[in-house]
């Protein structure tokens, strides 16, 4: 009862949506969390137009030259028209994916006082951070989620609770990075560039990799709250897994499509630096997280980006090849992240593209 009353009177003082959601007195969404979604904007998952593309990673890594060539050819249309796909046969063991989900569940199940040990500011580049919503001081609508973010490359950091988290996250980060780099190599080839073009231009040997865990407890009025509002990611590509509960939605052809793929699949979406590098040829996809009233959803996103000191601009080779001038101004990756994450942009547009249009 006290947690609900506190949320109603001073929502900015709430330190965990998990504690709020578990209150027996909660039977409606507090006004500070009110966010109305239009169900008419959501796609019919049975409509063939919204069948999410699937990429068989084994054909990239161990298939015949003809099979690899076909996958790279398919990536052109996928990256131009969709901006996302589901990767299968990617080499990350399903047991490791489950262990990572379990480790995240273990962290979010810790007492609030223990989780607060990881609380920090709003700098996405910090070693690790924990919180709820996004920016309690600035958000006009609070988010129905708790989260943590850990920087895992080029330096590896980890939450030190629960005890198994460090070992599992190190292996998971290593294996998902291998998948991301293979995808980036194939995307380079799909653009008619050398396989290592993006890797070298983006200084991926020092590239930023994050591990972000999201916890969405059941919501009494899920249609009146949001886990994460529409946004694009700031890096090159993001990989994502979730437990058995769906909630990730991506925008495609003016509709919001709920992602529901194979249990061992990795959802892959392109991000802002890929759109900038390709001069808008490949799209950074808008996506969001919805909530439900049935069970807790846990998702784990693994963004991969350039090194933080890299300056990104449209590739001259692509501009010349396509006969188009650069659409975006050059910007340092760290500065781009700070711009996107600022209160001015995050809840307004979900990206920083408007500020770097040439």
UniProtKB/TrEMBL annotation:
* Presence of the UniProt keyword Iron in the record: yes
GO MF terms on file?
Answer: flavanone 3-dioxygenase activity; L-ascorbic acid binding; metal ion binding
Q: Where is the Fe2OG dioxygenase domain?
A: 206-306
Q: Does the keyword Plastid apply?
A: no
Report keywords, A-Z.
Answer: Dioxygenase, Iron, Metal-binding, Oxidoreductase, Vitamin C
Q: Might you give the EC number(s) for this enzyme?
A: 1.14.11.9
What broad class of enzyme is this? Answer: oxidoreductase
Q: Which InterPro entries match?
A: DIOX_N, IPNS-like_FE2OG_OXY, IPNS-like_sf, Oxoglu/Fe-dep_dioxygenase_dom, Plant_2OG-oxidoreductases
Q: Which family does it belong to?
A: Belongs to the iron/ascorbate-dependent oxidoreductase family.
- What protein name does the entry list? Putative flavanone 3-dioxygenase
Q: Origin organism of this chain?
A: Rosa chinensis (China rose)
């Amino acid at each position: 009862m006290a947690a609900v009353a506190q949320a109603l009177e001073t929502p900015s003082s709430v330190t965990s949506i998990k504690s709020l959601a578990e209150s027996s007195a909660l039977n409606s969404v507090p006004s500070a969390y009110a966010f109305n979604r239009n169900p008419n904007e959501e796609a019919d998952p049975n409509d063939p137009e919204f069948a999410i593309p699937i990429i068989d990673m084994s054909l990239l890594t161990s298939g015949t030259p003809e099979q690899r060539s076909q996958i790279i050819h398919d990536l052109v249309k996928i990256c131009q028209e969709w901006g996302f796909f589901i990767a299968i046969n990617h080499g990350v063991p399903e047991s490791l994916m489950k262990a990572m989900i379990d480790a995240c569940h273990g962290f979010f199940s810790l007492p609030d006082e223990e989780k607060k040990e990881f609380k920090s500011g709003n700098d996405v580049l910090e070693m690790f951070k924990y919180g709820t919503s996004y920016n309690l001081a600035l958000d006009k609508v609070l988010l129905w989620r708790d989260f943590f973010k850990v920087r895992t490359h080029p330096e590896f950091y980890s939450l030190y609770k629960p005890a198994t988290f460090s070992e599992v996250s190190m292996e998971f980060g290593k294996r998902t990075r291998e998948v991301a780099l293979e995808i980036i190599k194939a995307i380079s080839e799909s653009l008619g560039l050398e396989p290592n073009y993006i890797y070298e231009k983006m200084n991926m040997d020092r590239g930023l990799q994050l591990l972000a865990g999201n916890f969405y407890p059941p919501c009494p009025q899920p249609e009146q709250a949001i886990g994460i509002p529409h946004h694009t990611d700031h890096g090159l590509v993001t990989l994502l897994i979730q437990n058995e509960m769906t909630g990730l939605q991506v925008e495609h052809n003016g509709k919001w499509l709920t992602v529901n793929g194979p249990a061992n699949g990795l959802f892959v979406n392109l991000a802002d630096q890929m759109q900038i590098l390709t001069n808008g040829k490949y799209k950074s996809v808008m996506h969001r997280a919805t909530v439900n009233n049935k069970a807790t959803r846990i998702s784990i996103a693994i963004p991969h980006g350039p090194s933080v000191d890299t300056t990104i601009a449209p590739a001259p080779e692509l501009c010349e090849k396509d006969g188009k001038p650069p659409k975006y101004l050059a910007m340092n990756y760290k500065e781009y992240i700070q711009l996107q994450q600022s209160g001015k942009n995050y809840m307004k547009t979900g990206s920083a593209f408007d500020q770097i249009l040439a």
